[in-house]
Amino acid sequence: MGRQPRWATAARGVLLTVACLAVIVPFVAVVMTSLAPQRDISARGGLVLFTSEPSLAAYRAVLSGGVVTRALSVSVAVTAVGTVLSLACTIMLAYALSRPGSLLHKPILLVTLFTLLFNPGMIPMYLIVKQLGLIDNLAALILPVVVNAFNVIVMRSFFLELPSELTESAKIDGAGELRILTFIVLPLSKAVVAVVGLFYAVAYWNAFFSALLYLPSPEKWPLQLVLRTFVVNQTPLGTDELSASTESLPPQASIQMAILVMSVIPILIIYPFIQKHFSKGLLIGAVKG
Amino acid sequence: MSSGIKVRPGAGADPGAPAACEPRVRGQLATRWHRDRMLLVLAIPGVIVLVVFHYLPLLGNVIAFQDYQPFLGIRGSDFVGLSNFSVILDGDPEFLNALVNTLIITMVQVLFVFPLPIALALVLNSMLNERAKRLTQSILYLPHFLSWVIVVALFQQMLGNGGMLNEWLRSADLGTFQIIGVPELFKLLITSQVIWKDTGWSTIIFLAALSKVDLNLYEAAAIDRAGPLRQLWHVTLPAIRPVIVLLLILRLGDSLTVGFEQILLQQGPVGAQASEVLDTYVYNNGIIGGNWGVSAAVGLVKGIVGVVLVLGANRLAHAMGERGVYSK
Amino acid sequence: MDALSRRTLLKGLSAAAVAGAAGSALGCSAKTTTGTSGRIGADILPTFAQAGNAEPALKSAHPLGMSGYFEYPPNPVAAVSTPPLSGGQISALTYTFDPVAPGKSDNPLWQEVDKRLGGKLDITYAPAADYAQRFATTVAGGDLPDLVSIYGSVQQLPALLKAKFTDLTEYLSGDAIKDYPNLAGLSTDSWRKTVYGNALWGVPIARVPIPGVAWIRADLVAGSGLPAQPKDIGEFKALLKGLTNERKSRWACGDPGGTLTMITAALGIPGNWIEDGGKFASNIELEAYEKALADTRELADAGVFHPDGLVASNNQRNDWFTNGTTPIVFGGYAGWSKYEMWGAEVPGFKLGSLAMFGYDASSKPLHPRGSAAQAFTAVTQAEPGRIREVLRVLDWLAAPFGSSEYLLRSFGIERQTFRFEGRDPIVNSRGQNLRLVPFGYVCGPTQAIYDPGRRDVAQARFDYQEAALPILAPDPTQGLYSQTDAAKGLQLGKDLTDARNGILAGRAPVSSWKAAVTKWRNGGGDQIRAEYEQAFSEAGPK
């Protein structure tokens, strides 16, 4: 990419460092607060930037009892299965829409597009899910959102960017659509597949409202909904007014922040594996040759 | 530099070719069916999902014309004509204020927030140190995963009038820096929150687009002695322009929607005049009491406006020689 | 913990919650639905009879009051002699304020409850903040469980109850309640919340109607040389101003709204509606209310409120309280032991409470009133035998403090989930999780004051209750239903809160309040008034 002027490099460095600090400082506060004892939180009146005696009490409190661990496995399963299904449907639909002028192309495209603009109401959605017998079934967390029009349209636009000579020549060689998709289009589209896959995975991972409505049994709830019950209800672990426990519970603020950290960690773990597919330049020329 | 065009041959090819052959083929349904049936098969699963989980429940939007009560159901609820629409159609000055606020915020965000991830993606892309580049990106995308409640609390604890910054300023006798709770600065506040939260995350799509740029083109450009700016203009930007246009059109379709939860959380201290937007107005004037009909009615109107905006923006894109969301 | 206090005390995480947080913890705009007039539903209410025979250490002088205990009564016996079910299953939908409990298959406590019930009690639940959505979809879907919590504001409630649930009047009214002796121990005021159209529609989740307390850091006040308990508005203002030192980042209080409520109470203004000879007036319409607004504005101008006070969540305000940034906070009465817990790590922390004071020598102060019932549990339509079975299960769940049922429900199984230390059952960490099943939000007894190992805390809670109950603000709308209030009450309340915040933030003059009240009247306030007046006259003695 050639040489860059020194002042540009320096300016870029300063800019990015400032931006990173603006993110890192609050995040350090979040992590530190999750580890802090009540004394530090009380002294600071909220977030703490440094704690002298970090403890995992908040994490232990959230993880005790096995409910969160079970919810974690539900979330992992739903995210994994959902992302795979979503990618399959999205790739197929996006590919089907990547040939302007094909039969029913425009109607299908508009049908897809308009789902972005009109939202079905909560109650009609519930009734459909119920009619399909999906209440209390984990599939209810996946099927209604398995195709997201935004992702279809983004992926389609990447497909459209591919050199059409590639598909044309493959067709002349007698390759069917499925072959072209699998062996020519997809290998050239790792970046967008990774990005769209990430979008889906994050959406599945973060979703709690569908579980709230469609899953009456709390044993089936995914992580985000279970964690929400710690945060939204704001009662640390059953310190009901009837609490007979004299042991001191971890402070509320650290539980909240621990929950935040816990819900971000899985994404932090998988992110680098996805990132490498879209952050690096790809030598299209080499593939073409 | 001519090679710059080759980066997006698809864009050059697709509007022309089919349009040229369409008149000929239109009559020949059988031929087209034969040619495209596999594409239709591939579309089936996705289309079925969209029909079942979007269009079927959309029929339920008939409650926009009802005094809908869950225990009576759609069949048992009374039809009330257009009265659910009155919340947005009766020209109440407070509604107009909310609409104006919404449009201002949308405009500010399209002008100042939308370009930022593009710029950031370009900056990241220009970094030669792969590891530093990935690390930076990994850090900057993090705030996306914080809920608005947390973001609002963080801003308050850092920048609030009693927050860390001002506490320090006060102890040093430097006066205070007030942005939170000041009506005039409310739009600036929420815009900076959006920038902080989502700029890093939004780069992902542009980075993906940039990753497709043929590196050979840069080499060719370098041999042509093209400077960084010319490389940017002739090699990099053309590669991501279709994505930019596409996202811009979709954003415009959403013009009437600006950060509902974010704003609702922070309305208290600045008041409605400065902070009410369409979604919060509708929420505060109908939905808050559990009025399903109003919620559906407003959804319909917003959808229709969205369709008009998307179609309009798309036409504009065509006029400027872009492909847009769909082709002509 | 009580819904009202917990919601207002610890609110702030969901969008809906924020909008609902119009009132302060003291319940400025909190909807109050019980009163003292006693005429609503008088001919159908169940006859009260004390349940259980545990002798309290502190016995309340007030019919709504909780008894206080310093230890769990020895040798607890069963309050219900025969299991209410003979096989079969009862299903319930309710809300919870707690984290998710381990499911029944992993929960020996729940299994033991089933065993003693003689059948299965299956409970599904949603976080209280999300309950409205869960409730609406469940109702729309049509398959209702046997028991459904009616919690929060519900549209067309009387018609909904009539369409889907059981009129329980013949089962529970008057002396019929004697079949369910534990339910008979729920306060009469709490039953009023279940009355619609002169019929009983459910079993209340009874609470003592004290919504909030003005907490004060006694240790910080002691150092200031100010009188810790103001006797009139002048001393109150002096206290707030004296506690403020902006240079040191210290403000008296983080909650202007709560302060306003404190001052209205000092003026003797109730929290909501005032009835006089069948005519209703809202507190916000009074001259005196505007006077209270002016006083609060004066305090705001004097800088006694934390500069982020109006934007802060109650969580944040509680943090300011414990770290001394604001030595006064308005919080839930039920959160008493929690403040003690938070403060335990702070050197010198001493929790105090401000008693209500009169505005001047001539005024009689009130204590804001909360709801005597957090929610109620309705019974889905079924044949009478089934209804009786379901009510027997509710009666079992309502077994009072001191009974073996209560011990099981609240503490679990001895040696598995708790052990006795002296006379106090101490729950272990496993028990802390297992007992999170929201039995208490399906049905529970009158609450008791019991802080194991903290006799001083129990005594302080009890003393506060005994001082507050006699001066509790009246509420004539108890047992009355106004559809406009249900549909537009929150919205109207939000508008008023906006107007109030505008004044307290210094954006608008106090005189702008009149316009806000006019808007409120035209926007639905007058309509609500008319509906209450009509309901009031219809419900009167025949």
From TrEMBL, chain C:
Residues making up the signal peptide according to the UniProt record: 1-30
Keywords: Signal
Pfam families: SBP_bac_8 (PF13416)
Coiled-coil annotated spans: none
Alphabetical list of SUPFAM superfamilies matching this protein: Periplasmic binding protein-like II
PROSITE patterns, sorted: PROKAR_LIPOPROTEIN, TAT
Family matches, as InterPro entries: SBP (IPR006059), TAT_signal (IPR006311)
Protein name, as recorded: Extracellular solute-binding protein
